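Forum: Protein Structure Q&A
Topic: Joint prediction for protein chains with partners

I've read a bunch of threads here and the consensus seems to be that you should model interacting components together rather than docking separate models afterwards. I'd like to see that in practice. Below is the full input, 409 residues plus whatever partners are listed. Could one of the regulars post the assembled result?
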Amino acid sequence: MRQKHLYTNIKNLCGITTGFPRLKVGKQLNDFVCVENAWLLISEKGTFEQFGEMKDIPEFSGNITDCSNKLILPCFIDSHTHLIHANYRESEFVDRINGLTYEQIALRGGGILNSAKKISEISENELFELSYERLIRAIETGTGAIEIKSGYGLSFENELKMLRVANQIKIKSPIPVKITFLGAHAFPEIYKYNHEVYIKIICDEMLPVISKENLADYIDVFCEQNYFSPEEMEIILEIGWKYGLKPKVHVNQFNSIGGIQSAVKNNAVSVDHLEVISENDIVTLKHSQTIATLLPACSFFIKIPYSPAKILIENNIPFCLASDYNPGSSPCLDMKFVISLACIKMNLTPEEAFNAATLNAAAALELQYDYGSIEIGKKANFIITKPVSSLNYLPYSFAENCIEKTIIN
Ligand code: NIG
Ligand code: FE
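Posted by a regular:
Agreed with the consensus. Here's the joint model:
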């Protein structure tokens, strides 16, 4: 059993909640509740026990950490990552500088297929070592819960390899990990003109084993022109549900082709990307329970539009922010930078962005009862900043590392 721990003289204790709402929409997003000059007590169980203003500090004789000039806030929740991959793709980065688009690179056999080739060549152990090191880096930048996808295997053997690695990470990880099966990330070259065969492999071969061995929590499909059509996605999501996997899907990254409608029809937990979104898509989301996941680091890196977050706010559509960490479109694990981009490029206020990257992101991983805010009883996953002038300083200082320490449990 750990001992209680008291944090004192906290310049600003931020991201406090007291129950509902567990998912913020519209104007609620501007409430990122803070207490200035605060103390925070962590219980022996590693949960938030109590907090208050320094003038009301209780008698305490255990471990004390002074946080003068520092902020404490809940850990970021990164609800969309492709943490597991075998190779970096910086040559594609240079190709884009020289004028090619992400789509053109993919059509030449780069992109996802490039990563898939490398996954087939690497051992499970080596893949684990590479990926676990990234998880540690993510935690150091303030991430306190994470989602990890497969999707660079694209065959029975290699998708399972990725999912086994993800499960090994989950077992060893100090932070909660949710795992998403993304066998439908792209069609392997041999099934380019034979989509039904690959979809059958996903549904009849991969899913039964994934379910039997309990290897995933969610199912994902990349619904996009030249990838999976909305109809193909629906077939996969329906079978996914039969195996107990809830959908969290890639839609509307480059084109609005009905992916949001198909995902909502299949009760998706989240629809991720949404760089391109129609009026009809907004109407569909407005009448759904589905959370939008916005990925500004991807927009930044491959130079595509930013999702219209302000329109989602006007329409009370819930959304969260995530890194989309992957070697092709977003080699960024740093959620603080994601928050900066959301403020600078999507015009979110810092409060809106912090809520989207903490409480709402927890909801997108169905972790909102235990994570995502400073709330009595929740797990004590939190960030202590370096000495900074204010909460606004964090997104403002967009490339500065302001995080002194990430405390887990
Ligand atoms: O979320 N768009 C689909 N999947 C990833 C990128 C995958 C890759 O380029 O390796 C994304 O952006
Ligand atoms: Fe992604």
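The mean pLDDT is 98.
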